[in-house]
Amino acid sequence: MDEKQKKTLMKWRARFKRVQLANNYTANSFKKCHVFVGLSLILFTTITSVLTFANLCENYELVPVITGVLATILAAVQTFMNFSEQADVHRNVARRYGELKKEIEYIINFTPDISDLPERSSYILKKENEIAQDAPNTPSCYWERATKETEEENEQNSIRHQQVNKAHERNDCKSI
């Protein structure tokens, strides 16, 4: 495996890591939303039930009505937003990108025979295209966070970075 092939595989690995992180962050966010809405729903339905049946709020007759309406709104949000399902989808996408990342690591570290590198590369690209077609969008805040975390790795293996280094080397040689 020559240096250019290795750099390309490392770039793919960095890209897959970024997508994996962004989808994990999104899945965790949806999971937190699901738990928050669910617990809030339980809280408001409990308050509504206690206040309605215990006649504890003779002076505050609107309190059970307001908490009941809030509980209804939260139930609708929980039902129609499908936070749990969205979290599962993003978690699955992250897992699949993680598998591709491991495949690349295996190729780089444990494949002495590169005669099958074109087939393996083709397989990785095909799988990545399949995953990308099925993957939902990731909110930009999580994408930016993942980009920052993988920025150094991406830069080390980017074509732009290689071209800048070559230009610096040429300029350094001219100044000598």
The main β sheet shows up as: none
Summing up helix and strand content along with how strands pair, one would put the structural category as mainly alpha
Low-confidence stretches: none
The helix-strand sequence is HHHHHHH
Helix % is: over 70%
Q: What's the domain count?
A: 1
Q: Which value, in Å, is the CA radius of gyration?
A: 26 Å
Strand content: under 5%
Principal-axes geometry comes out as elongated
Average pLDDT taken over every residue: 84
Report what the structure shows:
With 176 residues, this protein is mostly helical. The mean pLDDT is 84. The two termini are 33 Å apart. The chain has one domain (3-175). Helix 1 (3-54) packs antiparallel against helix 2 (62-81). The chain has 7 helices and no strands.
